[in-house]
TrEMBL record:
GO terms for cellular component: cytoplasm. Its EC number is 2.7.11.1. It is an enzyme of class 2 (transferase). It holds the Pfam family Pkinase. Belongs to the protein kinase superfamily. CAMK Ser/Thr protein kinase family. PIM subfamily. PANTHER family: AURORA KINASE-RELATED, SERINE/THREONINE-PROTEIN KINASE PIM. It catalyses: L-threonyl-[protein] + ATP = O-phospho-L-threonyl-[protein] + ADP + H(+); L-seryl-[protein] + ATP = O-phospho-L-seryl-[protein] + ADP + H(+). GO terms for molecular function: ATP binding; protein serine/threonine kinase activity. Keywords: ATP-binding, Kinase, Nucleotide-binding, Serine/threonine-protein kinase, Transferase. InterPro entries: Kinase-like_dom_sf, PIM_Ser/Thr_kinase, Prot_kinase_dom, Ser/Thr_kinase_AS. Residues 1-225 form the Protein kinase domain. This is non-specific serine/threonine protein kinase.
Length: 225
C-alpha cells in the first residue's frame, strides 16, 4: 500500500483561545464537522487525526501532492495570473465559501497563503487550509476585534468573506499584493489592463461599505464569472 502524505500542525495550548462545548478546540470541532459531511471533493483540507496534549494540540492533516499555496503559485507563474486562470480559481473559492456559510462556519482568514492549489491535473483544484481563526456562527453574528479588511470595530461574516475573496482576486491579478493601508488611504489602484467585468467585480467586493458588497451567492452570478 502507498503511504499517505500528511502535514503536522503544532498549536501551543496558550494559543488555543476558543474551545467548543465539549472542551475540544473550535478548530478541531469545525474540521471534524467538515470531514463528516465531506464527499471527498470539497475544498477544505481533511483532518486525519488529532492529539490534545498538555502543552500543545497536534493536528494530522491531509497534504495534497503536488500542491503549493496560491502565493507560491503566482510566483511560479512569474507574475499575475491571466484572467481565465484566476476565474477558475475564484469560482472554486466562492463555492467553498458558500459551502462553509451553509454549514454556519466562518473561516475568517481567507488569503493567498491559506489557499492551496493542487496541480495534479490541467485544471487547478482549490483547497482551503488553516482553520485556526475559524468559528461557528449564528444568523446576524458580528465580531468586534480588529480585522485586516475592515476599518471599523464591528464586522459580519458574509461581507468580510466577500472582501477577503476580493483581496485574493486582487493578488492573483496584480504584481503587488493588496495593502489595506493603501486601500483605506484610497491609494490602491486596480489595473487598467483588466476587463471591464473583472474590474467591476473587484470594485464591488472591495467596497468600503460592507452593506454595499454582494452576498456570496450574488457574487457567484457576477457577469465576469
Amino acid at each position: 500500500m502507498g503511504r499517505t502524505q500528511v502535514a503536522i500542525k503544532h498549536v501551543p495550548s496558550v494559543k488555543i483561545y476558543c474551545k467548543h462545548v465539549n472542551g475540544i478546540s473550535v478548530e478541531v470541532a469545525i474540521m471534524l464537522k467538515l470531514a463528516a459531511k465531506s464527499d471527498r471533493t470539497s475544498a477544505p483540507i481533511y483532518l486525519l487525526d488529532w492529539y490534545n496534549l498538555d502543552q500543545e494540540l497536534i493536528l494530522v492533516l491531509e497534504r495534497p501532492i503536488p500542491a503549493k499555496d496560491l502565493r507560491g503559485h503566482i510566483k511560479t507563474n512569474g507574475g499575475p495570473l491571466d484572467e481565465e486562470e484566476a476565474k477558475v480559481i475564484l469560482k472554486q473559492l466562492i463555492d467553498a465559501a458558500i459551502d462553509l456559510e451553509n454549514k454556519h462556519i466562518f473561516h475568517r482568514d481567507i488569503k493567498v497563503q491559506n489557499i492551496l492549489i493542487e496541480t495534479s491535473s490541467n485544471r487547478p483544484r482549490v483547497r482551503l487550509i488553516d482553520f485556526g481563526l475559524s468559528c461557528f456562527v449564528k444568523k446576524r453574528s458580528s465580531y468586534r476585534e480588529f480585522f485586516e479588511c475592515e476599518d471599523r470595530g464591528v464586522y459580519r461574516p458574509g461581507p468580510t468573506t466577500v472582501f477577503q475573496i476580493g483581496m485574493v482576486l486582487f493578488d492573483m491579478l496584480h504584481r503587488s499584493e493588496f495593502a489595506k493601508d493603501s486601500f483605506f488611504a484610497n491609494k490602491q489602484r486596480i489595473s487598467y489592463k483588466l476587463s471591464k467585468n473583472c474590474k467591476d467585480l473587484l470594485r464591488t467586493t472591495l467596497n468600503r461599505e460592507p452593506k454595499k458588497r454582494p452576498t456570496l451567492k450574488q457574487l457567484r452570478s457576477h457577469p465576469w464569472l
